[in-house]
Amino acid sequence: MKIDRITLRQIRLPLVHFFETSFGRTTERHIILVEAHADGVSGWGEVTAAEHPFYNEEWTESAWRILRDYAAPRVLGRDLDGPEAVYPLTAHIRGHNMAKGGLEAAVWDLAARIDGVPLWKKIGGGARREIPCGVSIGIQDSVDALLETIECELAAGYQRIKLKIKPGWDVDVLSRVRDRFPRIKLMADANSAYTLADADHLRQLDDFYLMMIEQPLAHDDIVDHAQLQTRLQMPICLDESIRSAHHAAQAIRLRACQILNIKLGRVGGFAEARRLHDVAQAAAIPVWCGGMLESGIGRAHNIALATLPNFVLPGDVSASCRYWQRDIVDPPVEITPHGTIQIRDTPGFGYALDRDFIASIAVRQETAS
Q1: Which residues constitute the domain of residue 28?
Q2: Which residues are catalytic?
């Protein structure tokens, strides 16, 4: 397989409802789509970087330049044995996993389409025909609004509720949620909003029987999380600080977590995500698939990833309509009444592209050859 062209498109998609975390409030997404061409076929990937460098050091503008000036030139025109070859070709670019991962995902999709197989099969997945789905609910304007949102998501069938928390929006909020919904699967995501000095405060969350608390401490920390885990009954799940299988192995060895979130962009694509999955599986550490407010392309890639066998917990992959008035794939991603997404057997990531809509919302486009 020889990549002869790579097309970058930046699209603008307004959210149907703002999404707020400890980083701030998001009302629209500026998403980079990567299209890789070879042998008259093209595959698509999505860069999951946000609009600002708050989740990690990447953002839309940095990802565009890394892709155009560094990652794409290292892949174009080379004879690739397969999509696994992309990761080592771009590995010496320090950081910027989301940019590199968007390109790598496009090549995986391309390879699946050339072979005429679904993406989930190409990556070695297929452990399940349906993936269990949860939802991530951002910080709301009031607790009453939050309770109403949770009620709606449970009525839609979602199997797990994840709530964003931060200092001042944690103990009292979770207490009211648990009083209202005593039996639901519930977890909290702190997005690095606390320090080890907050350990006694965080211990109060043990009263609410949470499935886990996600990334309570610094985005680049493992050691303090290990100390915090000894002081909490609920499992810690690591997200931002796990960017590779090596980081996962270190965290497991230090007992810094009991669960891992795998995000395709954060770890640089499918090749490293599979390695991380295997490290966790060997250590009996369950994993789940996190989300980054993806469009339908990124969402479809997450669905494929979540068919690997150790994705045993409901992830953040949910229906398109939770985020977008109109998605860029057809049909939009939908969930079943019992809170799952059925995997599709169409070659590639499984959904048709709404190319006219993509063209209408594109704010820039460049092709390298």
Answers
A1: 5-116+353-368
A2: 164, 263
